[in-house]
């Protein structure tokens, strides 16, 4: 598929982290966001991705972590164990094949 997994923690191109976040999302074809723990930064990044028209795959360990405003979107629930992560990987791979 020619995709590379990148995390903003892996790069330091700008003085402010948010500049790296926006730059990385802008260069991405697909953004995978884990909503587990309801991290406000993740929801901000989802908003950025939606605003600039990037495909977003939402994942979570609990449906309760998906805020009301995003529940109309499809998301993938997963278990944080060996089998659950393997299943998650397969689901993400299948989804990526439909998106790219």
From TrEMBL:
It comes from the Bacteria. This is Nucleoside 2-deoxyribosyltransferase. It comes from Legionella birminghamensis.
């Amino acid at each position: 598929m020619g995709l590379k997994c990148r995390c903003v923690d892996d790069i330091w191109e700008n003085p402010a982290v948010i500049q790296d976040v926006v730059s990385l999302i802008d260069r991405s074809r697909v953004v995978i966001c884990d909503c587990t723990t309801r991290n406000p930064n993740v929801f901000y990044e989802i908003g950025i991705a939606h605003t600039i028209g990037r495909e977003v795959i939402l994942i979570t360990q609990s449906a309760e972590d998906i805020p009301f405003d995003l529940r109309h979107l499809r998301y993938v629930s997963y278990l944080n164990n060996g089998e659950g992560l393997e299943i998650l990987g397969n689901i993400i791979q299948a989804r990526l094949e439909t998106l790219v």
